[in-house]
Amino acid sequence: MKAVARLAALLTALVAASASAAPEKDTDWTVPTYSGPYQPQGIDEKGLWALDDDYERVLRDSRLVIRDESLNAYVRGVLCRTVGEDRCRSVRVYVLRVPVFNASMSPNGTMRVFSGLLLRVRNEAELASVLGHEFAHFELRHTLAGFKRARSSSDLLAWSALLGATAARFGATNGQSYQDLEISVLGTLYHFKREDERASDRLGFSYMAAAGYRSSAAADVWRGVMNEADRSAEARGKPLKRYDGLAYFASHPTNLERADSLSLMANRVPGGEVDNVEAYRSALAPWFEKFLADQLAEGDFGATDYLLERLAGNNWTPELLFAKAENYRNRGNPRDLVTAAGLYRQVLEKDAGKVEAHRGLGLSLLRTGEQSAGKEAISKYLKSKPDAPDASILGTMIN
Amino acid sequence: MTARKTLLVQIVLATFLAAGTPAFANKLASAGQTQVIGKSNIRVVPQTDWNKLNAKPGPQTEVWTFDGELLNAVTFYTGVPSGKPILKERDKKNRPLPKFAKDFLLPDIPNFLERTYRITKDVSIFEIESVSPGSFAGHKGVEFRYTFVGSDDVRRKGEASAAIIDGKLYMVTYEAPLIYFFDNSINQYRQLLDGLSMDKTK
């Protein structure tokens, strides 16, 4: 009897799951009328906003915030184009130098955009899809009646769950670890969160459509994130689960469903074709090498290797090839050093001016025992960069 | 509960507390007296009093400080073997620490420390300012300077000296907030560094 009941429950769950995955009647992609700046209502929400204001004060003064005016103006510009000028006015954007894929929007209108996100997305449409989605969380705060009824603890948790939802790991952000909150209070909100994500995805698409951005970019981003997590696990020998040809972590069951529903929605959204690849690249250019270096220093070989492949596509620039070589040299197995040396040579063939490749080549060769070729490469580096921060120690290695 | 039983409980509690105290206590490294770093063969005679912290961030480490490790910390790494990280793993499954390898070249060490700190200290910004020849306990090595911002959002400055001796990593780092604290104790640190010696017989 028990077995029958269990089977029935399982069937019910399956039916429910297939129903939730079925396409919705999404025919109306117009952005709802903007109701103007929102103010918190009720004790719980006012308290939450006050707390959020405190967080924002800390954030505003944080050393992690990138102050570069042009980068900030660009990111803000993409958000404003996506959600429209009116809505955009209610947001303060903070670009944080944290090498993690994440962006978040908190109740009082604070948007955090992590450098790890900027490094991972390849064009304006991909960035717009993430920013629009986060903004949708913010806007839907007004309209979700059930959400308003929530008690402050679950309300706070819901937001913190959203803040942490996309983070592979949260790491340091002004000492606030939202994951801690999730761990301590999380229980039954997964379903709620998933619905919330779906609603935000929908509204996010409406913004994208209105702004003329290519809507399939949203699914591209999520597939990229899943593949990256997959490759990271693979390189570390962690177990994988494969489903429909896409691997994903058991601890992130929403990801696959998310990418699928994003794809389904993207097919139906009458979006534009705007990608603005060049504009995105030039806006990021002054920071690109720094963000890459941050990513390399994270020491996540598989994730970095995938990320570089995704950024390169069919066009391995000397910059990306150099990062790939550094990634191999960092891992430092004997075979990695041989691979790295080959890659550094390719960099120099493509661009003789990328002199850092001489340094990497020299250090790789010295570690594999090729003394004379290694010393020669280091000498070349020192000739081009006599003022390098490590010039004096490298100098001792060639004598 | 009888009075006798209560007394017994009190005695047991007091014994536990007394026994527990040394585990949390830090020790004084007195000026002018030879100090052995951890259980290693590294010795030093400090010229000022330091506090030795009992808490060890890694198996081959010892931390000395004046005002607490957040304000000034000298960390000794005494003989980290090849294949091991320099600090204790924090989240080995998801974010394993980089491992020291005996074929490291001296210029690899600053970057190795950076990769370790990004995980153990949640460092997002780490800048290496200079890497030059140095020494550790009379052995040729590398000296480097760096700044970093950790999860407490404080910018710290660091100076380190390291050497690879018999395939093991020996290193000492001095780190303190850039504002006031770094300059305040840098000379005492350098005195320690200059006084390090390695006991060959051990």
Shape of chain A: elongated
Quote the distance from N terminus to C terminus of chain A. Answer: 82 Å
Secondary structure category of chain A: mainly alpha
Number of strands of chain A: 5
Please state the average pLDDT score of chain B.
Answer: 89
Q: What's the story with the biggest beta sheet of chain A?
A: 3 strands, mixed
Domain count of chain A: 2
Quote the beta fraction of chain B.
35-45%
Q: Kindly report the CATH topology of chain B.
A: Protein Transport Mog1p, Chain A
Q: If classified by CATH, what would the architecture of chain B be? A: 3-Layer(aba) Sandwich
Polypeptide structure, described:
- The complex is a heterodimer of chains A (399) and B (202).
- Helices cover 66% and strands 5% of the residues of chain A.
- Chain A has 19 helices and five strands.
- Chain B has 202 residues and is of the alpha+beta class.
- In chain B, the strands form two sheets. Chain B has an eight-stranded antiparallel beta sheet with strand order 1-4-5-6-10-9-8-7, sandwiched between helices.
- Chain A binds chain B through residues 58, 62-64, 96-99, 169, 171-172, 174-175, 236, 238, 294, 297-300, 330, 332, 363, 366-367, 389-390, 392-394, 396-397, and chain B through 93-96, 98, 101, 103-108, 110-111, 114-115, 118-119, 122-126, 128-133, 142, 149-153, 155.
Which helices and strands, and how do they pair?
The complex is a heterodimer of chains A (399) and B (202).
Chain A (H helix, E strand, L loop, with lengths): L1 H20 L20 H19 L8 H15 L1 H4 L3 E5 L6 E3 L4 E5 H6 L3 H20 L1 H5 L2 H14 L12 H8 L3 H23 L5 H19 L5 E3 L2 E3 L5 H15 L8 H21 L3 H12 L5 H14 L2 H17 L5 H12 L3 H14 L6 H7 L2
Parallel strand pairs in A: 1-3
Antiparallel strand pairs in A: 2-3, 4-5
Helix pairs in contact in A: 3-6, 6-10, 6-11, 8-9, 10-12, 11-12, 11-14, 13-15, 14-15, 15-16, 15-17, 16-17, 17-18, 18-19
Chain B lengths: L2 H22 L2 E3 L5 E2 L5 E3 L5 E4 L7 E5 L7 E8 L27 H13 L4 E12 L2 E11 L5 E11 L2 E10 L3 H15 L1 E2 L4
Antiparallel strand pairs in B: 1-4, 2-3, 3-11, 4-5, 5-6, 6-10, 7-8, 8-9, 9-10
